[in-house]
Design a protein that fits this description.
The chain is of the alpha/beta class. About 40% of the residues lie in helices and about 10% in strands. It has 12 helices and 5 strands. Strands 2-1-3-5-4 form a 5-stranded mixed β-sheet. A hairpin with a 2-residue loop joins strand 4 and strand 5. The longest helix is centred in the last third of the chain and has 18 residues. The protein is globular.
């Protein structure tokens, strides 16, 4: 399963794009092109700012300087940059759906195809490609998109948000997200969730996958072992274990638990 399995209509924007620049309200006003060198990853942001318009390159303003410096700190030196919107929005307002759809169809979907890792910087690019996705669920994690089967998508905080919250835990989380991205780029094996948290796994979880409710019931039986049937008393224990142990969204797991209890 992918993180998209629980989202209704996840491909709508990609299958039926709205058209190119001729349909866009911005019509290439303050346009900034993507910078697409040969690299393993591309940082995909929200929209250019005043500095980006002047320099004609993405992530060259204050937030871009922060992104680049932290990336360099963790050894990420080669990357492409783009935005889901290529024209600077008036007064740096959040880009609307019409503009995003036009840029997706005209530029972005082609720009990202040559990069094995697409880093979604902030919630706007995340929700442009993963409609209805919750940033807190995706942030710091890899996701896979059915329309781009050879690529991985990684979400992190936008550096502009970090600049507004300097010195707190958010800045440290941003660095942790970049650190994990660097490990992914280097191809280092990811640590098992239980190992990272000092928890001994109770069962062999290799090959676990939930495709339907029958798989869910079989997995519950394997998790439960000799501890008795699933009931309301041990629901939370199973729920917490399931959410971190299998590639399924929280809402899907929650819905199936309720079906089992009814």
């Amino acid at each position: 399963m992918t993180l998209l399995d629980d989202i209704e209509g996840p491909h709508q924007k990609l299958i039926r794009p709205s058209g190119g620049c001729h349909n866009c309200p911005r019509r290439r006003v303050d346009f900034v092109p993507a910078t697409l060198p040969k690299a393993q990853l591309i940082f995909l942001g929200e929209a250019p700012g005043a500095t980006e318009v002047k320099e004609q390159e993405g992530f060259t303003g204050k937030s871009g300087e922060l992104l680049r410096s932290v990336a360099l700190e963790y050894g990420i030196t080669e990357f492409a940059v783009s935005n889901v919107v290529h024209c600077r929005p008036p007064e740096n307002a959040a880009p609307n759906k019409k503009v995003i759809d036009c840029c997706l169809s005209q530029f972005v979907l082609d720009e990202i195809r040559d990069y094995s890792i697409v880093v979604l910087v902030g919630s706007v690019p995340l929700q442009a490609l993963f409609p209805k996705a919750k940033a807190w669920h995706f942030r710091g994690n890899l996701a896979y998109h059915p329309d781009f089967p050879e690529q991985r998508f990684y979400t992190m905080y936008h550096p502009a948000y970090i600049l507004r919250n300097r010195g707190g835990t958010i800045e440290e989380e941003f660095k942790q997200q970049m650190s994990r991205l660097a490990r992914i780029v280097r191809g280092e094996a990811e640590q098992d969730w239980n190992e990272a948290h000092g928890i001994e796994p109770e069962v062999d979880r290799s090959g676990w996958e939930i495709a339907d409710i029958d798989d869910f019931r079989a997995l519950i039986a394997q998790m439960n072992g000799n501890r008795g049937d699933l009931n309301r008393d041990n629901l939370q224990e199973h729920f917490d274990g399931m959410r971190r142990m299998v590639p399924s969204s929280r809402s899907t797991v929650n819905r199936w638990f309720r079906k089992e209890l009814n």
